[in-house]
Specification:
Order of helices and strands: EHEHEHEHEHEHEEEEHEH
Structural class: alpha/beta
Strand content: 15-25%
Strand order of the largest sheet: 6-11-7-8-9-10
Radius of gyration: 21 Å
CATH architecture of the largest domain: 3-Layer(aba) Sandwich
Shape: elongated
CATH superfamily of the largest domain: Response regulator
Distance between the termini: 45 Å
Number of helices: 8
Length: about 270
């Protein structure tokens, strides 16, 4: 099945890179805009199947963008999914009144984003055009279902993101952390195995791997073990990280070495 054409409007490059990577892997064609004005312009050019927009943005915020889309004759029925760090009930009701098809609080899990995108695309064409409607019980967005695992609440000015390694590989995650010079804690889990990577301004400071009560492994070799994981969950929390640099190697070089080892492991054995 062909993927949808999706317009992502968000001023956070980290969110843009992560969401684009996940949706592209699902076969969708993702176009991006960094503020509401650019988002409106691209929406008029592209006529996307779905628009995913942040609420708090420069130039034109998500609320205003949504109102303008709903009053546009050609874009009035395009489903809009809002992403927001706001989570008050009045924000959900406002989103419903203005015609958003859903509202997803930040930080979010990629599994939840996948589900919301699928639902929004199935509902495509069911959005009313014209002026925003008075609030009714049916216009209210339903609160999101509780996540199967407790998620981390990001502190003000910070961000968190969660998902599965089959959606976004550890290599891709680390490349984005380096590119965006992120600081924070990246936790990985695959069955009883738990990995923990500490990052500061795009540099890996430490890596450890543990299993139950067994002794923890630390150091650069742990990174190569974790890079081999093709399934499991990750949880990245942006925060200030302190401590000495135990790895002392750029992420790019680690990824290159990991790829070399993987290629070597898959070479046919002779003799």
């Amino acid at each position: 099945m062909l993927g949808a054409q999706i317009l992502l409007v968000d001023d956070d490059p980290w969110i843009v890179r992560m969401v684009t990577a996940v949706l592209s892997k699902r076969g969708h064609r993702v176009h991006t805009a960094s503020d509401g004005e650019e988002g409106l312009q691209k929406a008029r050019q592209l006529h996307p199947d779905l628009i995913i927009s942040d609420v708090l943005m420069p130039k034109l915020d998500g609320w205003t963008l949504l109102s303008m889309l709903r009053s546009d004759k050609e874009l009035g029925q395009t489903p809009v999914l809002l992403l927001t760090a706001l989570s008050a009930d009045e924000d959900r009701m406002r989103a419903g009144r203005l015609g958003a098809i859903d509202l997803l609080p930040k930080p979010f899990r990629f599994e939840e984003l996948d589900l919301r995108v699928a639902i929004a695309l199935r509902k495509r064409g069911g959005v009313q055009t014209g002026k925003p409607q008075p609030e009714t019980p049916s216009s209210k967005l339903q609160p999101p279902a509780a996540a199967p695992e407790e998620s981390h609440a990001a502190a003000p000015g910070q961000s968190g993101i969660h998902g599965s390694l089959d959606q976004l590989s550890l290599g891709s995650l680390l490349a984005m952390i380096e590119m965006e010079r992120k600081s924070g804690i990246l936790q990985l889990q695959r069955g009883p195995l738990q990995g923990r990577l500490m990052c500061r301004r795009g540099q890996l400071l430490s890596a450890e791997l543990s299993e139950g009560n067994a002794a923890r492994k630390r150091g650069i070799e742990v990174i190569f073990q974790l890079l081999d994981w093709t399934w499991g969950h990750f949880d990245f929390t942006a925060c200030e990280v302190y401590g000495s640099d135990e790895i002392n190697t750029q992420i790019t070089h680690l990824l290159m070495e990991g790829a070399r080892r993987m290629d070597e492991a898959h070479q046919p054995q002779h003799g």
